[in-house]
Amino acid sequence: MLEQALRVTTSSRRQRYVGFVSVIFCLWDIMQQIVDGGLYTGRFISAWTEGIPDTTAPAVFLMGLATFLFLFREDFSPLFYPDSSAKAGGAPEGKPAQGQPLHDEEAEAPDLLELAAMQHGLTVRELDVLRLVYEGKNNPEIAEALFISRNTVKKHLQNIYEKTGVSSRMELIYIINLKN
Q1: How do residues 58-89 score in pLDDT, each as one tens digit?
Q2: For residue 125, how many other CB atoms are within 10 A of its CB?
Q3: Residue 51 contacts by C-beta under 8 Å, 6 or more apart in sequence?
Q4: Residues 159-179: pLDDT tens digits?
Q5: Among 12-21, 121-130, 138-147, 162-171, which is the least confidently predicted range?
Q6: CA–CA distance from 134 to each of 53, 56, 64, 107, 126 (Å)?
């Protein structure tokens, strides 16, 4: 059950990246076992004795750096760069410039919801509930999608209502669209 919940809440891009890094490290470990076995039996000679540089440390460092940058970009960039989606024209992405019509509303929804969550201090789980409410899901559907009980959904909704100062789903959606 926990495994299913993690699959649902983890982006497919992150799943592919973690899978790729895991395969690389498994292959690296197998290769290292072969080299160690060859060194032990005397079939190979140590690179240290021949003065050949060992590339293990730089390669592991680069893989760690790539992982850090990937996670930084996906997880932490909205905290440090909230306006990083600003276009050259001055209007943030997903928001029209003065007098321009709105584009596809579904494409804007994540930006609106994340901004609303930051403005009102919502937790990550409350943001998950908010996304599903914004999509028009009812409490049982939200509970099933997030693998939580209906009472937990109700509690998250009460917290969201309290933090945003509204008392219904309609008001919540209205205030999100109005403020953003």
Answers
A1: 888 888 888 777 766 655 555 555 554 443 34
A2: 14
A3: none
A4: 999 999 999 998 888 888 876
A5: 12-21
A6: 56, 48, 37, 13, 12
Length of the chain: 180
Residue 154 CB partners (closer than 8 Å, separation 6+): 139
Within its chain, how far is the Cα of 56 from the centroid?
A: 29
Residue 38 reports pLDDT greater than 50: yes
Q: In sequence order, which residues have a C-beta less than 8 Å from that of residue 9 and are 6 or more positions away?
A: 128, 146
Residue labelled with tokens 């290292």: 32
Give SS3 for 83: coil
Note the Cα 57 to chain centre separation in Å: 28
Name the percent of the chain lying above pLDDT 70. 71
Output phi, psi for 96, to 5 deg. Answer: -80, 155
Q: Give the type of residue at 141.
A: E
93 vs 83: CA distance, rounded Å? 9
Residue 152 is predicted with a pLDDT of 95
Phi first, then psi, for residue 45 (nearest 5°) are: -110, 150
